[in-house]
Design a protein that fits this description.
Belongs to the MoaB/Mog family. Keywords: Molybdenum cofactor biosynthesis. It comes from Haloarcula japonica (strain ATCC 49778 / DSM 6131 / JCM 7785 / NBRC 101032 / NCIMB 13157 / TR-1). The protein has one domain: MoaB/Mog-like domain (Molybdenum Cofactor Biosythetic Enzyme, Chain A). The protein is about 55% helix and about 15% strand. It contains seven helices and six strands. It has a six-stranded mixed β-sheet, sandwiched between helices. Strand 5 and strand 6 form a beta hairpin.
Length: about 210
């Protein structure tokens, strides 16, 4: 990233010299350029004002826990996800639990979406062991992936657990006009994904998907 910063600085420096050259040879054009800059500035303010104009409010969320050892009464990761979303003003419409089986996971996600939820958050089954099949079951449903979610999640996880963060296959994608997020099953990972990424951003992301 330091290299990119150096390139940016160099570009800015070159732009400054170029501006001085034009000022000397084309003084009249410089005045017109200032007028154009003022117009662009107003346009930028307009874009900023409208940035969240289409955000969805009160998003209905389905939480799906993937586990063969948990129950809905003993589901700390699911509890953390539900609390984070509710604290952000969203509604938990339904919670389900399903075994680590590809067909069962796919059917459960499809049932939640068919039931009318805007977003599905799964927890569990995103690692590298043979029985971690959540991602394999759900990715074929995606019309479009949302790669930034997994990238940001692993970046945040790296700050907590170091290079072991690469073992997570946490992912997200668009299904029709809804969103599905696949989070790990550990409590810390569920908290990181739900509190720092999904809960604060899901309304804006859903608004973009539905434009």
């Amino acid at each position: 990233m330091g290299h990119d910063h150096d390139e940016t600085t160099g570009h800015d420096g070159a732009g400054h010299s170029h501006g001085e050259h034009e000022h000397g040879e084309h003084g009249h054009d410089h005045g017109e350029h200032e007028h154009d800059s003022g117009h662009e500035h107003s346009h930028g303010e307009h874009t900023h004002d409208d940035h969240h104009a289409h955000d969805a409010e009160g998003v209905e969320i389905g939480v799906l826990t993937v586990s063969t050892s948990r129950t809905l009464d003993d589901d700390p990761a699911g509890d953390i996800i539900a609390t984070a979303c509710e604290d952000a003003g969203h509604e938990i419409a339904e919670r389900r639990l399903v075994a680590d089986e590809m067909d069962a996971i796919e059917d459960a996600v499809a049932t939640l979406l068919d039931g009318g939820v805007d977003v599905v958050l799964t927890t569990g089954g995103t690692g590298l062991t043979p029985d971690d099949v959540t991602v394999d079951a759900i990715e074929p449903l995606f019309d479009r992936p949302v790669p930034g979610f997994g990238e940001l999640f692993r970046w945040l996880s790296y700050e907590e657990v170091g290079p072991m963060a690469m073992a997570s296959r946490a992912t997200a994608g668009v299904v029709d006009d809804r969103l599905v997020f696949c989070l790990p099953g550990s409590e810390n990972a569920a908290r990181t994904g739900a509190e720092k990424l999904v809960a604060p951003a899901v309304g804006h992301l859903l608004g973009l998907v539905r434009r």
